[in-house]
Amino acid sequence: CSQEGTDMTAVTPLFYDLRETATMLRVDYSTAWNLVNTGQLKAMQIGRRWKVTQTAIDAFVQQGTEAVQLRAQGHRNACERIGGRTWASSNEATPGGPTSPRQVASALDSRLRQLTARPPRNSTIG
Description:
Blueprint: E1 16-17, H1 18-25, H2 29-37, E2 44-46, E3 49-52, H3 54-81, H4 101-117
Antiparallel strand pairs: 1-3, 2-3
Helix pairs in contact: 1-2
């Protein structure tokens, strides 16, 4: 009996082992194992091997996507609370802090001169 038009090789497996799962998630095997071990990725042990369903992989990816979206929304909310992004660098956010590489270098040079201008504490010169 012939089944024309049906590709028998395109069968989706019910379970993936950890190596296949790691490849699908584009992470190292040890990372996949840690995800299973910490419960972040649902898996079941069959004999001595851990198996992961496509549904568990999809749920893990969805959770990660939602977490990124929540962090981005939190960032947008924080920016709105302070009236939008009001500084160009993280240094500018600190009152009185240097804002450019030149100002940072100048401040460091000044501090270095202050520290090296003092006589050593255990000096007998004088």
